[in-house]
Amino acid sequence: MFKINDNYLKLPGSYLFSTIGKKVAAYTAANPDKEVIKLGIGDVTLPLAPAVIKRLHSAVDEMAVKETFKGYAPDLGYEFLRTTIVENDYKARGCDIAADEIFVSDGAKSDSGNIGDIFAVDNKIAVCDPVYPVYVDTNAMAGRTGVYNPETEKWSDVIYMPCTKENNFVPELPKEEPDIIYLCFPNNPTGTTITKDQLQVWVDYALKIGAVIIYDAAYEAYISTENIPHSIYECEGAKGCAIELRSFSKNAGFTGTRLGFTVIPKELKCGDVMLHSLWARRHGTKFNGAPYIIQAAGAAVYTDEGKKETKEQIAYYMNNAKIIRDGLTGAGYEVYGGVDAPYIWLKTPDKMTSWEFFDYLLENLNIVGTPGSGFGPSGEGYFRLTAFGSLENTKKAMERIKAGKA
Amino acid sequence: MFKINDNYLKLPGSYLFSTIGKKVAAYTAANPDKEVIKLGIGDVTLPLAPAVIKRLHSAVDEMAVKETFKGYAPDLGYEFLRTTIVENDYKARGCDIAADEIFVSDGAKSDSGNIGDIFAVDNKIAVCDPVYPVYVDTNAMAGRTGVYNPETEKWSDVIYMPCTKENNFVPELPKEEPDIIYLCFPNNPTGTTITKDQLQVWVDYALKIGAVIIYDAAYEAYISTENIPHSIYECEGAKGCAIELRSFSKNAGFTGTRLGFTVIPKELKCGDVMLHSLWARRHGTKFNGAPYIIQAAGAAVYTDEGKKETKEQIAYYMNNAKIIRDGLTGAGYEVYGGVDAPYIWLKTPDKMTSWEFFDYLLENLNIVGTPGSGFGPSGEGYFRLTAFGSLENTKKAMERIKAGKA
């Protein structure tokens, strides 16, 4: 008789966005005349850039003709894309990463979920709290997280590193030694960042204790402040301890187009085994390459036209972020993030819980956001708004915040 | 100190296609005037069908405009595609599969590799021998296969089911009881099939012993013979014991476009846990949907135009298959497969090993194929040719076979 992976049964339900959906639907049904503005969504809304569209069309045309048709892609990604990534994202920033250390994939969610495959079950993971749920859930599926306690909303074998206003949302080195450390900067959900010096502390720590850092840099394109690292490889020694995850989802609007990559430097080793070899084997065995037309479109993001157009999109979202920051600050809220990231993280007023504030915003101002507690216990008392709405709706939402009513 | 997944270190190198590549490169370098014909490749060569190209272009146009732009896809696939699949691939064949039992993915390789995630490590797997290597390798990565013996080329904890001319390439029920049974029909690499009655025996057996069948039907579009099942759900009771994997790679030339799906009926359970729920959780946590434009193109395969055009492509390949079968038979070879599948499996002549025959074909006839032993020990003494070349090259290769020289 076959047996299932029991670890799946230990997972708590993932009810955050479905609960939000149900509450919004109920409110809308009861108040059909109210215009609800959604600033909870973590998905882009602007269409793909013209340079990307143009390349998608020309790549489709290549697939229509025998002479230029492309069958199976190289498992690890087309050379043209890997080279372009290395030149633009790494060499241009002084990071010595080689094209064959880039593994092209269908996105950072898959990579951040699958990367656990190459590690033993008995590794202790450390995560920020609040956190993107995929890191923890996928480790739970692998049996790496112990027992879940619904009271504390924590797993027994996970090291949680609180990120609150008290530590400026930068985690402190944990007391207990982890084996695998997940870091995401600019951060989802808090929208805050880490300086190069602060990140260097983590790299030094990982090298000292023999831990590996899984560094999620999916939001690096939103960085505007000097001295905020775009890549962990800007830190000395990082090639010996860090894996970096990147995405085209937020820098070029590829959430529905799917493209990302993982960087594993060859000098990152366990004994004399390169993690690079293990991931190459995993990628080559359980994945068959991202579609040619999507990889071609990804390379178009790095053309002069593509860079200009995607920068404009980011500027559009970051203008929304500024409007939200200014609007909330003007209305007396404590506001974090939103400078180098498309997320604004605010402290709920009057000691409201995250969900109480959700209900207040929905019912009184007709604005939808995301309760901070949905991202982990230390998110309680915080709330996330995103800059991915339209300019018009963002402005309208801030007028409601100012007026204290819809 | 972090620890790696040691199971990866037990994997033997996957040298089949790289050894072939090296041998061909060496021969070509030494004989630059010779025209080498490649019939080893398992990849399609015809361009995408016009109906697919047309839909790709229109979907790209949708992504260019704010009003029709698509962000994150539904985790489990767009409703329009899931419904189309169900109508055409299942209801039309009398299989009662629901749209929400279809999980759209980026291909059957990913799915056949990832499906192991939802099962416990201590399940015993059974595979055909010869076999598509992904089934075994991904189970080895999960620690499910025991120790590899390089002498026998077998894992200690895997049940191998020989498929040779003696059993007409249909495996016999194993003596030792497996928990998970991998079956692929029409088969890669042997190109042979199984009748509905023969498959019913497997379904009945799985139901009796409480095993789950992972049924890879990636080549079902090549079936022309009556009474060969296109889906395992044509067998009675299969919804209680079988997961089916499908692909757009070979029926519509999507090898470089990437689209597939897995079917998990809700009545397939372990105790009271639906495998459907586990896979939904896995898919939703470690995957972010196939690209919208690719899913739209996938639906175009099922339009009248799309069906007509992809049928013509399959007819083109199957005409090649007939030419190869006839050519080989006429030259006195023992030939199998190639009737309901794009693969032709032949017995090497004069007791040559698979690799000896490879060298003979390359050096004397300048034809490249794939040694059967590369797919497992019972493939020794067999050889695979594929129908995916051009008509011209296929004919030319058979002229060389007939003449016994290039």
From TrEMBL, chains A, B:
GO biological process: lysine biosynthetic process via diaminopimelate, diaminopimelate-aminotransferase pathway
Cofactor requirements of the protein: pyridoxal 5'-phosphate
Pfam families named among the record's database cross-references: Aminotran_1_2
Domain of life: Bacteria
UniProt entry keywords in alphabetical sequence: Aminotransferase, Pyridoxal phosphate, Transferase
UniProt keyword annotation of Acyltransferase present: no
Residues where substrate binds: Y15, G42, K109, Y132, N188, N288, R384
Pathway where it operates: Amino-acid biosynthesis; L-lysine biosynthesis via DAP pathway; LL-2,6-diaminopimelate from (S)-tetrahydrodipicolinate (aminotransferase route): step 1/1
EC code: 2.6.1.83
Residue numbers binding pyridoxal 5'-phosphate: Y72, A108, K109, Y132, N188, Y219, S247, F248, S249, R258, N288
Family affiliation: Belongs to the class-I pyridoxal-phosphate-dependent aminotransferase family. LL-diaminopimelate aminotransferase subfamily.
Function statement: Involved in the synthesis of meso-diaminopimelate (m-DAP or DL-DAP), required for both lysine and peptidoglycan biosynthesis. Catalyzes the direct conversion of tetrahydrodipicolinate to LL-diaminopimelate.
Quaternary state and interactors: Homodimer.
Name of the protein described by the UniProt record: LL-diaminopimelate aminotransferase
Organism of provenance: Butyribacter intestini
Highest classification ranks of the organism: Bacteria, Bacillati, Bacillota, Clostridia, Lachnospirales
Gene: dapL
